[in-house]
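[agent] plan:
  1. take the single chain provided in the ticket
  2. run structure prediction with default settings
  3. attach structure tokens to the ticket
  4. add a short note for the reviewer (M.T.)
[agent] executing step 1
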Amino acid sequence: MRLDLIVGRRLAFLFLLLCAACQPLPQPFQPEQKWVDGNPLLELDDTAGVFVGAIENASPAVSGALGSALVAALLDLDIPASVETANSRSYLLYGTAYPSETPDGVRLEWQVIGEDDVIVGSFEQQVAAAQWQSPSSAMVERLANDAAPRIEALVRDESDAPPPLPPVVVEPVAGAPGDGNEALTAAMRRALRRAEVDVVETLAEGALVVLGSIYRAPEGEGMERVEVTWSVIRPDGSEIGRIDQSNVVASGSLDGRWGHIATVIADGGAEGIIALLQSSRSPESP
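[agent] step 2 finished; step 3 output follows
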């Protein structure tokens, strides 16, 4: 059974051209907020997260600042974390500060402890003693950003990770006025690469094809409807699904450079394409 995904998006092309610099972004384009309300460990029932404990041999100010920075860095990696509470599957991050073997240095030893008090893994960081006693926000952020990926590697269950998305070939867009064909093609390739999709130049084994086309039609006096269609195609030519975007704009307003409009359209279309790529790797997908 063929899967069709029709994602209708009303992209205000002309309005964005004239007003993007002076208006806030519409809500659909706002970055998603993480853990706005409440505690992330409690909101994700039975989801493995990290409880960041106080750092032994550190002042309350240093321990608190670094703990909060670690929580923020872990949340940025989509790992639930807290310095306040834990759930039944939480890992414990336990830190201890020791004098370093080098003069005027401090060695931070971190342990990630799982169920039954089993040490899942450990790692160390080095910091100058003077910086440790009077930490700057830059130093705290540096330590947290360095530690978070190491913690992620220890707590992330790779067996639960979804299989990678198939690579894609983004063929040149057809039918756009002005420089739209080139601009939309390049923008879609960038959008998919930002989403960690492997965009390849030639059709390889397991790769899918993304086709883009533009259709224009008169829509009242001095206006026209612009429709953008993205299709995801298998190597045998069968279609997995389609994403449609449309808007009514002033006639001829897109006859020149598309600029940022191409990026806005591609970013919206890429969301639907990624959903189609995810469905294509399902065992139930035809």
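[agent] step 4 note for reviewer: The first helix runs from residue 13 to 19.
[agent] ticket updated
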